[in-house]
Batch of 4 targets.
Target 1
Amino acid sequence: MRKRRLNLNYALAYNNRGLLYREQGQLEEALADFSKAIEIEPNLAIAYSNRGTIYLKLIEIQNAIRDFTQAIKLNPNYAINQGG
């Protein structure tokens, strides 16, 4: 249980740093951090969604669709929650 929580914390840290990189326009760095978050915690829907957003900006549409689909599979309510 403790290891799982520690992994989630590390994954969230990478995810959050990826958000900062994205805001600064450093898309490759953001992509790397979102991918690392997913590597650490493969069930982190938000990381898939964030990485999908980067893929869209990089015009890698198939990768974006794959990640958005995975985010929804992991959390079926995710699309509703994110639709602002």
Target 2
Amino acid sequence: MTYTTEHGDEAVTSHTLTVQERVRRLIHSRLGPDASVEFMEDLAGGYTEASVAKCDVASGGSPGLDGQYIVKTTPLTGKERQRTAHEHFIGALGTFTEQHVPKLVLSAEDDRFAIDLYEIAGGGLRGVHAAEVAGSAQFRAACETVSHDLLTAQLVSSTGRKVMTALEVLEAWLGVGFLDSGRGKALREARQLAGVDGPWFHLSGQVLPDPLSLLAEENELTLQDDIALLGVCHGDLHLRNILLDRTRQHHGSYWLIDVNWSSPAPLLYDQAYLETAAVLTI
């Protein structure tokens, strides 16, 4: 794939484009070549190719955009596109999403990346930043508030309950065959380095179950069952997908972006995922 640069006739391949160039071209593919796209500030990024930034977009025509937006860029994985999951999340959680999920105004993708543009109502984006770069006090308060508020909304909109084994819950969250994926192999290596060789392990004086052993082989934990509440989940609730506003003192001033799941799943995955992300960030 080749493109003509904005400053001449030189063609460049898709693999030599920077992330910002890709974002600009994807926005142009939806809004037209005359649309103005200016990047203002990176809000998070650096660990992976995924990034969150503020940008100023101005265009005529339809759809027409004019203002400051949040742009989330993620490597293309072949998973369900974000708009479907976003719309399902909004439809299921009602009032919560009206306050805490920004409007998704544009989605586009090329052969390597997908982008999503979000509009936060109620003013400019001067004080908006990702939770992963917040100060410690705001960081902890945000994790607690988001976990509480989201779970309350999820319980109210729960789609039912089901008796499930611990293995079934993990497979619903991680997917069947998780251990054979890249992430599963990395976790197995970490488990081996930590000296965990059974269904239980000791940490800081506590005896804890090893979730990977549930996926690897049948043991005393595998077949234990209980009632699981089902409902809509975010699916990727880490600190880069929580936006805070340093100019607003109220702890409820936050927004969730990049919803990943559109099918009902056992609840509490989001809270466990966020807690893990917080522990790894501290």
Target 3
Amino acid sequence: MGDSLQQLASMGPAGRPASPDEIAAAITFLAGDAASFVHGAILPADGGRIAVRSARRFSAGAGSGPGRGRPPAPAGRSRRSSRR
């Protein structure tokens, strides 16, 4: 593997790039009968990079709305109606 890939992978939670067998296992699961009820889902086989990025964004209060860094609008009043 190239040095750039190794350096990038070392910064992720797994600390290494995925092996071909690990990626193949994810593909085999999605293509097999065990995933027959899985529809429209994304299965990131990225060693935890997306999970860490999402956790950082959530803890920083990114986005808006309940649970996302902004309190809900007062009862009976929407955010749009409170702006003039």
Target 4
Amino acid sequence: MIRTILTFHANSINTEKIVELYRREQILAESLQLTRAIESEISVNPSDPGEILVTALWPDSDAYREWLDHPNRGRTAPELTALLDDAEIGAGRIFEIDHRVDRNSLVPSATATADLPQN
């Protein structure tokens, strides 16, 4: 499993417009519908409203490649490019996930279960 990370640093006015573009065009939802992506999110740093982080979770690098190669990926490029004209764009990064935990995967250990009060 991999996580992709992309950062932008735009002015705060364009940050709002970039996030609105992602919402209006449902870019994150589209990446999930058209590929094997597991989840995706866009975040804005509250301490620095110009900093935007876009992350996605993929089962493997081939799944991410499906999105990179998909013809729909570029459909919002002209508008996004205009909004990013003065932005600092960080290099896209890929991280291999060593392990992960979420609430659904938490299983009490036998020891922890033994220590729980019995009704």
